[in-house]
């Protein structure tokens, strides 16, 4: 549990703050810095491209990199950059800092996947990874508290300083943990991990069912969740809803994700990943449909569905892949999955910017999110049905 919680706080820093704090603070930063909706679209797309680049790099060089060292380096870089954001006023320099943090976030998660699948209990892989991935939800909760409690008193720059302080404490805790993991690794008689070459990795993702479906699922998840969170506060402002409503929604997202990470992981380990995917995707689709029907009334319901789906998905997918591949290979395939996720997020943000520019509203953007969320639920249903058929075929063949 200590490992899961510590790595979860690394997700707070890398994803909760590194990827999403800017979107949460952007409407408040506009009073001092000349940034508009197109800037947010460019920032969102650029960070997802950087996330994609970091994930691709990890998939190629990951097997040759020590995951403990990788985690410490990524955490240190992100903490320094979070503090730097508090002193910046140039929007273009901010774009560069956000891109570096996004790339670091991808590599940090890849290292975490490898460490958890290698050092954690095999029968708790999805649970542990879902708890860790829900650290992003803890970050959402912190973002909500920063918006509601810190920024009104001290200004938006103080929000970045608070994030950096949390990052420093997390880095110290991570350093102490990885020292123990290194000792455990050095006492092992045999290293049984297996990594794939770059060519073999891409062949696996394109040809093997589990690897392909896991990456395709993350592509669609990126298109829905990144677009939803990046533009949420801007859409609420467009609808002339109170700014505090966005803060409350981010808090709901964070609180839901904290619980969902453990619960969905347990369901995946006990009943199978297909059941877990079907449950969380169906809940997300229903919640965003309600949000489109009445945004003011159901925005926090959408936040609940978002938290229920987005944060556990990483642990469920990685746990699913780890059942068929080694810890290093799981990290590599998950790296390609993050590339797919980043691609989906970049496409979603660019589409949102184009639709907002042509229609003057984000309503159509959220309609597209609804359509894709329904597609995710149908995809989960397909995975569930097809795997039941495979299981029945295998059992029947064994019986014969």
TrEMBL record:
<dbReference type="GO" id="GO:0005886">
    <property type="term" value="C:plasma membrane"/>
</dbReference>
<feature type="transmembrane region" description="Helical">
    <location>
        <begin position="12"/>
        <end position="31"/>
    </location>
</feature>
<keyword id="KW-0472">Membrane</keyword>
<feature type="transmembrane region" description="Helical">
    <location>
        <begin position="70"/>
        <end position="88"/>
    </location>
</feature>
<keyword id="KW-1133">Transmembrane helix</keyword>
<dbReference type="GO" id="GO:0022857">
    <property type="term" value="F:transmembrane transporter activity"/>
</dbReference>
<feature type="transmembrane region" description="Helical">
    <location>
        <begin position="160"/>
        <end position="178"/>
    </location>
</feature>
<feature type="transmembrane region" description="Helical">
    <location>
        <begin position="137"/>
        <end position="154"/>
    </location>
</feature>
<dbReference type="Pfam" id="PF07690">
    <property type="entry name" value="MFS_1"/>
</dbReference>
<feature type="transmembrane region" description="Helical">
    <location>
        <begin position="37"/>
        <end position="58"/>
    </location>
</feature>
<feature type="transmembrane region" description="Helical">
    <location>
        <begin position="94"/>
        <end position="116"/>
    </location>
</feature>
<dbReference type="InterPro" id="IPR010645">
    <property type="entry name" value="MFS_4"/>
</dbReference>
<feature type="transmembrane region" description="Helical">
    <location>
        <begin position="333"/>
        <end position="352"/>
    </location>
</feature>
<feature type="transmembrane region" description="Helical">
    <location>
        <begin position="244"/>
        <end position="264"/>
    </location>
</feature>
<dbReference type="InterPro" id="IPR036259">
    <property type="entry name" value="MFS_trans_sf"/>
</dbReference>
<feature type="domain" description="Major facilitator superfamily (MFS) profile">
    <location>
        <begin position="1"/>
        <end position="389"/>
    </location>
</feature>
<dbReference type="InterPro" id="IPR011701">
    <property type="entry name" value="MFS"/>
</dbReference>
<feature type="transmembrane region" description="Helical">
    <location>
        <begin position="299"/>
        <end position="321"/>
    </location>
</feature>
<protein>
    <submittedName>
        <fullName>MFS transporter</fullName>
    </submittedName>
</protein>
<dbReference type="InterPro" id="IPR020846">
    <property type="entry name" value="MFS_dom"/>
</dbReference>
<feature type="transmembrane region" description="Helical">
    <location>
        <begin position="364"/>
        <end position="385"/>
    </location>
</feature>
<keyword id="KW-0812">Transmembrane</keyword>
<feature type="transmembrane region" description="Helical">
    <location>
        <begin position="211"/>
        <end position="232"/>
    </location>
</feature>
<feature type="transmembrane region" description="Helical">
    <location>
        <begin position="271"/>
        <end position="293"/>
    </location>
</feature>
